[in-house]
Amino acid sequence: MLKPSPEKLLALGMSFWNAKALLSAVELGVFDALADGPADLATLTPKLGLHKRSARDFFDALVAMKVLERDANGRYANTPETEFFLVRGRPSYVGGLLEMANARLYESWGHLSEALRTGRRQSEDHDASDLFAALYADPQRLRGFLSAMSGVSASAAQAIADKFSWRDYRTFIDVGAAQGMVPVTIARAHPHLSGGGFDLPQVGPIFEEFVVANGLADRLRFYPGDFFKDDLPKADVIIMGHILHDWDLEQKRLLLKKAYDALPEGGALIVYEAMIDNDRRENAFGLLMSLNMLIETDGGFDFTGADCEGWMKEAGFSSSRVEHLTGPDSMVVGVK
Length: 336
Fold this sequence. Notes:
Blueprint: H1 7-13, H2 15-28, H3 30-33, H4 41-47, H5 55-64, E1 68-70, E2 76-78, H6 80-85, H7 95-108, H8 112-118, H9 131-136, H10 139-163, E3 171-175, H11 181-189, E4 194-199, H12 204-213, E5 220-224, E6 237-241, H13 249-262, E7 268-273, H14 284-296, H15 305-315, E8 319-326, E9 329-335
Parallel strand pairs: 3-4, 3-6, 4-5, 6-7
Antiparallel strand pairs: 1-2, 7-9, 8-9
């Protein structure tokens, strides 16, 4: 019998080293600095405002982590993935999520043990009565948060555009639309569709700016409102992505019932999340996301596809199905 090795445990326990190195690289603009082509240590160090003591170790660590490349002449370059996903200003940029992780989540997760002992959120606004009210009241933080939501939703949005039977519908509304990544992605893929996004009024200018930049202002509009206080806009399809996990069970049930009431007969609700597998053994990201909801919210938690189907049935939906999207994300589709 082989003796057990501590290698996996040590790698897991020290994985925050890797995470922080990547987050700092995004914050410092390493990938942006290489967008125009390779550069050597002597060029990159002053360009990024780094001290020479550890700059070489930092860049070479990123090479070892496979997020940078280095050629025989010592010039550093982005990998295909970082060139595509981590250069600011590109439509494919997903670094907004990593920026938020660096600015907010990294520190908050240092208090996970306290959260597990107390059941109380540990984010920077843990004394505020409403986390989202505090977040949305700060224009700079709000813009960063909405950009992060675009990053976390981009791949799932494309998968929903590809996999759902949009030919059977004409209108759709994304509830909690943030910057508008999901409506823009779907509308771009299906020219016959029109609709928009529903979110708090403060989001409106940011949503509209994003829609205009993507040339879709003729088919997508912003619907201001509070989904706990107001009725949802009526549409053939309603989407809730990374929304339900923010709230406790009764609030989840309320939002599903509001979606049911806003749909016509035959209409569909799409709920997508980093859905926990029904056996709760495989989707570590989904389970860790649920712990993130412990850190970030008063009552939120993630859930399995079976959980969501059960709540949809309680709300009145006649049928439902679970379908994998991409990575850890799956969607539950309920039909009225």
